[in-house]
Amino acid sequence: MTRQTPLGDGLTVSPLGFGAMAVAQVYGSVSHDQGLAALHSAIDQGMTFIDTANVYADGENERLVGEVLRDRRDEVTLATKFGIVGLSISGESRPTARGGHDYVLACCDESLARLGVDTIDLYYMHRRDVSVPIEETVGAMAELVAAGKVRHLGLSEVTADEIAAASAVHPIAAVQSEWSLWSRDVESSVVPAAVAHGVGFVPYSPLGRGFLTGTVATLSDNDFRNKIPRFAGANLDANAAVVDVVRGVAAELDATPAQVSLAWLLARATTMGIPSVPIPGTRNPARITENLGALSLSLTDAQITRLDAAADLVSGARSGDPNWVSQGRE
């Protein structure tokens, strides 16, 4: 895969990225070798936009990505993030956000050391610290660009107003938020704001944290999805209706539910006039190949209409704390 997708601020990346959180002990146990194999397979197949964060596995995910980068740095567009503290997969503690000037600068240096690189291609504010003016946070990020430690800036789970305020400080290349067939709240104001300010969009969990693939029936005890309302109790069973719609379209196209879900998201972004690069994650190299198949899948207008309607079938919120995501602050 040689084609590239432009986001914002002159940044171009592979048309699908790889969400490295999937190999960070978040969705259950995964071995070190399994994580390395998945990352190498993604790059081998042209999925060279790799996304991690300092908080994933308490920095170990960045170190894992760094192992891959030792010999393949020139092949990869590297994204990482700062801003979440106190993340607990078990749910025993509630995470908080930090965005103070000195904290931002320190986090970048720590990430550079763990990754073993001199420069981060895309550096995200992972969550908005509402106790700190966003101008201060983005101003510190802009200093990192001036110092050559970061090439482009990104924001995650921000509101339309926050996009506007941040863009007044420094050009923003990408906004990353959850966006998929069953998480469409960003379409009301976040996506239009990104379009207005020339910002690309990077949907995380574009497969509904794996649910839209049709392979999620039960969750292990150490799976953080247990804390998400739409995966809890009766909601998990009720949401099977969404997957049924996706499966129906997949059968018509001789495709998989994952491919249909990604193809819908790419088509939806095009309709809304925004460059978009989803970042599905997986531990299985075969799934990477499968996901890339979405790039050549075409949906009919009738199929898109059926998939659009599936959002009305979703039961349960996408976050246990609405204020933790942009939807709760809009």
TrEMBL record:
**Keyword Oxidoreductase annotated:** yes
Q: Which residues form a coiled coil?
A: none
Keywords, in A-Z order: Oxidoreductase
InterPro entries, per the entry: Acid_Pase_AS, AKR, Aldo-Keto_reductase, NAD(P)_OxRdtase_dom_sf, NADP_OxRdtase_dom
Respond yes or no to whether keyword Nucleotidyltransferase is given for this record: no
Pfam families for the chain: Aldo_ket_red (PF00248)
Per its UniProt entry, which superkingdom is the organism in? Bacteria
Which residue range or ranges hold the NADP-dependent oxidoreductase domain? 15-311
Q: What is this protein called?
A: Oxidoreductase
Q: Which organism is it from?
A: Williamsia phyllosphaerae
